[in-house]
Amino acid sequence: MKMQLNGVTLQSIIGLFCVSQLVQGEANPVGLKQIDFQFPVLERAATKTPFPDWLTAFTGLKEWPGLDPPYIPLDFINFDGIPDYEPYDQNHCNLVPRESCSFDCHHCIGHDDVYTCSKLSQTFDDGPSPSTTKLLDQLEHKSTFFNLGINIVQHPEIYHRMQREGHLIGSHTWSHAYLPNISNEKIIAQIEWSIWAMNATGSHTPKWFRPPYGGIDDRVRAITRQFGLQAVLWDHDTFDWSLLLNNSPTTEQEILQNVVNWNKSKTGLILEHDSTEKTVDLAIKINQLIGDDQSTVSQCVGGIDYIKEFLS
Ligand SMILES: [Zn+2]
């Protein structure tokens, strides 16, 4: 039996875009790693996505999970094809074998990973958040948002607005786990619950996936590909989250100067975050610098927006 979602079988779809080269590393601000912002804890919203009956039938549960979602076995997952690299901590790249093709440790890109774009384009991780609405108020082009499942079910109204305004929404896991350091089952849980949050809230199934902290290697890819997901990385990192630190090693001016430099080539994918007011304010300034001639990730590579869109 294959997994049934709203009565439709979830099938793998082979991605269209292939690259097979190493991404050029950014000039990192002093002391910063190429990681993204720590998972933000959001306040409870008044309404949230109802837990659907079909998901109760499938999981036996009645409410959305917390930060550690339970693993629900799926018949279509083939564990035999998953490499058995030892899980490793985010700060221990010295333990990571080169053959695992780690993006965050070695800037290695999988053959079907997307990491750049023919038009310089912003992308936003970690939402939806109350700050996302301010960004949506300003955006005059279609952009790409990689959302956390746990935030989606807390802010369905912001998710619906993103959808209504034509933005592309991809998965950023359920609760921002660093995937190379957890078991295959826990990776599956992070992915399946993020997909279910999107099914239940947006009546669609994502095609595009951004790993938290850029934490992806061939073990993680072997799992996410079985969901039909295609990884989206980046070639320009704003390190916008670092502005939230005391004694930030970079300044807004330095970040904006980087954007000016990136804008000379007019190509690339920029990593940003719509999880806080500060990073959203910066995103609006970046948008003003590079304008609205931008692409969504699917437009960048001539791909589809979603694996499935259901009638809601
Ligand atoms: Zn993130």
Automatic annotation (TrEMBL):
It comes from the Eukaryota. GO terms for biological process: ascospore wall assembly; chitin catabolic process; polysaccharide catabolic process. One of its GO terms (molecular function) is metal ion binding. One of its GO terms (cellular component) is prospore membrane. It is found in: Prospore. Its cofactor is Co(2+). Its main location: other. Keywords: Carbohydrate metabolism, Cell wall biogenesis/degradation, Chitin degradation, Chitin-binding, Cobalt, Disulfide bond, Glycoprotein, Hydrolase, Metal-binding, Polysaccharide degradation, Signal, Sporulation. Its EC number is 3.5.1.41. The keyword Metal-binding applies. Belongs to the polysaccharide deacetylase family. Hydrolyzes the N-acetamido groups of N-acetyl-D-glucosamine residues in chitin to form chitosan and acetate. Chitosan is a component of the spore wall. This is chitin deacetylase. It comes from Saccharomyces kudriavzevii (strain ATCC MYA-4449 / AS 2.2408 / CBS 8840 / NBRC 1802 / NCYC 2889) (Yeast). The gene is YLR308W.
